[in-house]
Amino acid sequence: MMASGNGQPSSPGTFFEEVIAKTPGGEALRLCLQCGTCGGSCPSGEDMDYTPRHIFAMLAANMKDKVLRSNTPWYCVSCYYCTERCPQEIPITDIMYTLKRMAIAQGLYEDADAPDWSQTFIGMVEQFGRSYELGLATRYHLTHRPLGKIRLGTFALDMLRRDRLALTPSSIRNTSQLRAILDKAKELEGAQ
Amino acid sequence: MRYAYYPGCSLERSAASYHTSAMKVADRLGLVFQEVDDWNCCGATEYFAINLLPAYALVARNLALVPGDLAQMAVPCSACYVNLKKTDKYMGKYPQLAQRVGQSLAAGQLGYRPGGVQVRHLLDIIVNDVGCDAITKGVVKPLTGLRVAPYYGCLIVRPENGFDNPEYPTSMDRLLRALGAKVVDYPLKAQCCGGHMTQISEKVAYELIRRLLHNAAEYDADVIACVCPMCQLNLDAYQGNVNRHFGTDYRIPILYFTQLMALALGLSAADAGLGSEIVSAQPALAKIAVEVPQEEDKKARKRADKRALPMPTMPDEEA
């Protein structure tokens, strides 16, 4: 039996073990002291359903559904304050990314905005090799938040007026090479 | 000094002023930047949320494209910087990841050995390779009297990026002082701008942006200097939204550190890429007698008289 974050035994095949296995350096999660430095350092912690410290206790308790349905990973802004300060050197930001991936893979998220934003962004990158801000914003906002489009309009107008939004996407030349690399990576990841 | 240069998607358009000023400054300082041919997006903070291995493979393609005779890569965007640096580091630290990224790259006839390219932020190169002493010697128009708040944000200093303190960085402070500016030391200089949160939760994003503007304003900053296109976009293009949301009236221009460098080194306002800020930099830069180009003027004159066509207006847009 391996030790979990609370010093309790952890069995293979559990949610806790799955999170560790899917995170580079995830083994450190076993060492969590529940000190709360992560939550105290988090700029968006007060808007999260559970702070990172709370999430780690829930992970150790294998509360998969509640963890993956919470807004916590999606409200992580990737500022790395927690990772920097964690006395046990847990790669907390990377664990939040793992939780996002698992929530998407299992369809366990309550608010679709953040997952949809990430997926729209990546769709553009896989297609062109570069991000395309106007296309991204238009597709995302028109399909997911049509009521917000008036405000987006002012923003886009400001940006267009100062020539800061491209009207056509920029693309890399060797998109087929990029596609081959990403396809192979997806295949390897699927086979894991 | 020669470096591979990875601009990142933002510098192509939304942060073109960063690219322009960085190129002009590099040229003046004798730095040679060779753009990585056919580079692709780094995935920002989005790809790691979808697929792990493809996210690392996407970043690694850029490292693999660096010509063998260039040992170092200059990166102006903090988000690209952290992804490139992290991918190189993790490939070195986790052999299984390196092996699978290698297999993916091989599908595109590419390869990358961890440690092959040293990834460095543009600020690091300017402060530590060129050095503040050399820069001071090149200053022909010191920024005397201009109160500048250096804003570092997150990803240039965290996680453990080596060239500055992760909680209280000072590289840009020293650089701005070398340019003759009055550096504003304020507590939130390495706090988060909210990143992509403007797209996900405006409430969370606006509060993070408000804190930064408030803190810089408390310390009487004329201008905030930044090192990342995401930070610039959030603080500049969303400043109006933040004001409407909180009933505040911040008008703090947000410039890239390279724009201030260009001015101090005697380059023109156009070479400094001025004029594309949403919050006008003119009132602040008048202190150092800089005229910001106003490309908008011509277009504004062409517009029909508002009274000619009664258009519906949003309540918060009424004059």
Helix and strand topology:
The complex is a heterodimer of chains A (192) and B (319).
Chain A: E1 2-3, E2 9-10, H1 15-21, H2 37-41, H3 52-60, H4 64-69, H5 72-75, H6 81-85, H7 92-105, H8 113-128, H9 133-144, H10 149-161, H11 175-191
Antiparallel strand pairs in A: 1-2
Helix pairs in contact in A: 8-9
Chain B: E1 2-5, H1 16-29, E2 32-35, H2 52-64, E3 72-75, H3 78-93, H4 95-106, E4 118-121, H5 122-130, H6 132-138, E5 147-151, H7 171-178, E6 182-183, H8 197-200, H9 202-218, E7 223-226, H10 229-237, H11 239-246, E8 254-256, H12 257-264, H13 282-285, H14 296-302
Parallel strand pairs in B: 1-2, 1-3, 3-4, 5-6, 5-7, 7-8
Q: At the first level of CATH, what is the class of the largest domain in chain A?
A: Mainly Alpha
CATH topology of the largest domain in chain B: Rossmann fold
* Global Rg of chain A: 19 Å
CATH architecture of the largest domain in chain A: Orthogonal Bundle
Largest sheet of chain B, in brief, is: 4 strands, parallel
CATH class of the largest domain in chain B, named Alpha Beta
Widest beta sheet: strand line-up of chain A = 1-2
pLDDT average of chain B, as an integer?
93
- Tally of helical runs of chain A: 11
Give the end-to-end Cα distance of chain B, rounded to a whole number of Å: 53 Å
Number of structural domains of chain B = 2
Sheet with most strands: strand arrangement of chain B: 2-1-3-4
Content of β-strand of chain A = under 5%
Low-confidence stretches of chain A: none
Alpha-beta content class of chain B: alpha/beta
Briefly summarize what is shown.
By secondary structure, chain A is mainly alpha-helical.
Structure description:
- The complex is a heterodimer of chains A (192) and B (319).
- With 192 residues, chain A is mostly helical.
- Chain A folds into two domains: 2-105, Fumarate Reductase Iron-sulfur Protein, Chain B, domain 2; 113-191, no CATH class.
- Helix content of chain A is 56%, strand content 2%.
- Chain A has helices at 15-21, 37-41, 52-60, 64-69, 72-75, 81-85, 92-105, 113-128, 133-144, 149-161, 175-191, and strands at residues 2-3, 9-10.
- A two-stranded antiparallel ribbon of chain A has the order 1-2.
- In chain A, α8 (113-128) runs antiparallel to α9.
- Chain A is globular, with a radius of gyration of 19 Å.
- The mean pLDDT of chain A is 87.
- With 319 residues, chain B is α/β, with parallel strands linked by helices.
- Chain B is 43% helix and 9% strand.
- Chain B has helices at 16-29, 52-64, 78-93, 95-106, 122-130, 132-138, 171-178, 197-200, 202-218, 229-237, 239-246, 257-264, 282-285, 296-302; strands at 2-5, 32-35, 72-75, 118-121, 147-151, 182-183, 223-226, 254-256.
- A four-stranded parallel β-sheet of chain B has the order 2-1-3-4, sandwiched between helices.
- In chain B, β1 (2-5), α1 and β2 (32-35) form a beta-alpha-beta unit.
